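chain below, 116 aa
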Amino acid sequence: QVQLMESGGGLVQPGGSLRLSCAASGSIFSINTMGWYRQAPGSQRELVASITSSGTTNYADSVKGRFTISRDGAKNTVYLQMNSLNPEDTAVYYCKASATGGRNYWGKGTLVTVSS
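prediction:
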């Protein structure tokens, strides 16, 4: 089992920045890829960014150049640095860990609101 705890969400003005954190615990040795997803009201959950255990990253087109995903192995934590935020980025952001055996684990989510 893997447990994920997100933090760092909040209210930010358009053009501002936030950094989300996702701390993993439990069977962390089984994790291959970690990612951030988001779900806005009335919309489906979508991939924002992901990073593999070897450091390969992938981003949604809508966040390329603005968001950066990184991974600190020593702290078992994945970060999402979000810059130049706009109201369309408002959503609940979820952390996901993909582990061996095809198992996926999700955090409970953290709300990001971009508004003036």
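The chain has a mean pLDDT of 95. The longest strand covers residues 18-26.
thats it, cya
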